[in-house]
Amino acid sequence: MNINHPSFGKIDKNRVIFFDTTLRDGEQSPGFSMNLDEKLRMARILTELGVDVIEAGFPVASTGDFESVYRIAELIKDSVICSLARSGGKNDIEKAGEALKPAKRKRIHNFISTSPLHMKYKLRMEPETVLEIIADGNKKARQFTDDVQWSAEDGSRTDPDFLCRCVEVAIKNGATTINIPDTVGYSTPEDMRRIFKDLLERVPGADQVIFSCHNHNDLGLGVANTIASLQGGARQVECTINGIGERAGNAALEEITMILRTRHDEFPYDNRIISKKLLNASRTLSTITGFDVQPNKAIVGRNAFAHESGIHQDGMLKNAETYEIMTPESVGWNRSSFVLGKHSGRAAFRDKLKSLGYDEFSDEKLNEAFQRFKTLADQKKTVYDDDISALVDDEVRDHEFIRFIDMSIKSGIRASEVLLTLEVDKQNKKVEFTGNSGSVDAAFNAIRKIFPHPEATLSLFSIGAVTQGTDAQAKTTVRLEENGKTVDGQGTDVDTVVSAVKAYVHALNKLLTKRQRQKPENVS
Predict the structure, then answer these.
(1) Quick one: 367 and 225 in the same domain?
(2) Closest CA to 205 of 159, 182, 174
(3) Which alpha helices (DSSP H) does 21-159 contain, by range?
(4) Tell me: the pLDDT tens digits for 466-497?
(5) Residue 477: in which H helix or E strand, if any?
(6) Core vs surface per residue 401-439: b (16+ CB within 10 A) or e
(7) Quick one: which residues bind Mn(2+) (predicted)?
(8) What is the pLDDT of residues 188-238, one digit of tens each?
């Protein structure tokens, strides 16, 4: 049966709408906050990827979130821009509507908890009061747009009869999309399939709205629960790039996309996602947040199309389908395996960047990255793909307020002397520090001397190698905590201490950004 939707017109039963919440739920991950320019960059990537709905933020949470939604609404015209609001929040829906004013296509997403646990302990409300708030919230949202989504927070743990009543009230009062989230990742695929099937069979008017799923990954079932939700009748999937999000994250957009494409025989649903752009979206997000996906991550991990076993290699040489159920090109990878070295030119370097998924690179950034590559190639016998990814990610990362400039070290058995130069607010500042706890400790103390931040504490310091060999680049992670805020920074360099300083500066920049913003309330 076709559904008439205010934003998409007539939708047949085999159309799946992709609702991306990387910029809202994804950004709620500890250490994953983004500044305005980074959000705008990701919004462009998402709309080019073919995402139908972009959830841009939670405007009432902070001035920064409001501005992000407003600017994304101005910029993006090919996707529906969605703004989050609490159904019963004091000014939530008004703020959401105001932030969406510039949008060509807009949606307000309002929510309230419906499970007995949440109603009793979080809301401290009776069920009848929750039903009244659902009615009022959706009526109010319809004053700003015809495209209104309502979510039953903790819906998967809600009493089935009460959930039916909630959905019926939401539909009667103007909701055109109904989202049933598995907010805490508790459900199994059979649970989610049953919930949607039950609602479609029992709720009056259910056949005239889009049902949506939003599955968290606490038990590792986010994607499986999403596919089961589609089998139960949901036709909108809420997901994030790389599966980022609260706690263990959300269902990963790239994995859902390729399940629907690879197993179209089992799941005959159409969508707008351009799969060849998945790798670029993944890499862009990793660069912005400083968090790489694990090597064996499905679809976008660096080992997803790698073959080391002799038996597998033999099969691949005879027929790639023996060990690959999809082609690397279909998600943005390139099968090229040539190795770059110090004699390689700029054209070869640019080609390698494209093969690794770095599509958007200005000439200025290319030249900067190429110079770093030439320096690295002089220091290493072999430059691997992962080496190039590491140095490029360092180059494009947004170090807004503080930048690493230079450092020299004199180190002995009992003392280390560090001369460090940082650019702080466009001005170079140099300091010398001598310590007796090693070069890294001396370098970190030098940073604190240049830019004091006494309330921030170092809670994690981790060093690994990007590739093999004694000349491998060091990859360092630094975690800073301040007043309950946690951020992670990453840095790479053939010099371990330099990589540590870069990671600390990256974390410090993210902490400064986070100071300006209030973290949105955890939802869905």
Answers:
(1) no
(2) 174
(3) 36-49, 63-75, 92-99, 116-117, 127-141
(4) 777 777 888 899 999 988 778 888 888 889 99
(5) strand 474-482
(6) ebbbeebebeeeeeebbbebbbbeeeeeeebebebeeeb
(7) 25, 214, 216, 250
(8) 999 999 999 999 999 999 999 999 999 999 999 999 999 999 999 999 999
Residue given tokens 């990701």 in the structure block: 42
11: in domain = no
Is 47 in contact with 54 (CB distance < 8 Å)? yes
- Average pLDDT over every residue of 497-518: 84
How far is Cα 504 from Cα 404, in angstroms, rounded to an integer? Answer: 10
Q: Is 18 in contact with 212 (CB distance < 8 Å)?
A: no
With H, G, I as helix, E, B as strand and everything else as coil, classify residue 161.
helix
DSSP 257: H
Task: Give the pLDDT of residue 352.
Answer: 74
Binding-site sequence positions for Mn(2+): 25, 214, 216, 250
Number of Cα atoms under 13 Å in the Cβ half of residue 519: 20
Mean pLDDT of 287-293: 88
- Rounded Cα distance, 272 and 256, in Å: 13
Domain boundary among 314, 333, 352: 333
Strand partners, 489: 478
What are 125's two structure tokens?
Answer: 């409300």
Q: Are residues 329 and 209 in the same domain?
A: no
φ/ψ of 466, rounded to 5, equals -70, -45
> Helix, strand, or coil here: 154?
coil
Write the DSSP symbol of residue 243: G
Q: Look up residue 330 and give its two tokens.
A: 């279909």
- Map 340-355 to HEC letters: ECCCCCHHHHHHHHHH
Place of tokens 């790698």: 306
Q: Which of 160-164, 433-437, 445-449 has the lowest mean pLDDT?
A: 433-437
Are residues 252 and 341 both part of a single domain?
no
Task: Evaluate whether residue 320 is within a structural domain.
Answer: yes
Q: Are residues 102 and 232 in the same domain?
A: yes
Instruction: Please check whether residue 520 lies inside any domain of the structure.
Output: no
- Specify the pairing of strand 402-411 against strand 9-11: unpaired
The domain boundary residue, chosen from 348, 368, 396: 396
How many domains is the chain partitioned into structurally? 4
Start-to-end C-alpha separation, the chain? 29
Q: How would residue 522 be classed by pLDDT, with cut points 50, 70 and 90?
A: very low
Residue range(s) defining the domain that contains residue 380: 336-396
Question: pLDDT tens, 331-386?
Answer: 998 763 344 667 667 776 787 787 777 766 778 878 888 888 888 778 766 676 76
Give the amino acid at 451. Answer: F
Neighbouring-strand partners of residue 308: none
Tell me which residue of 110, 82, 252, 83 sits closest to 173, measured CA to CA.
Answer: 110
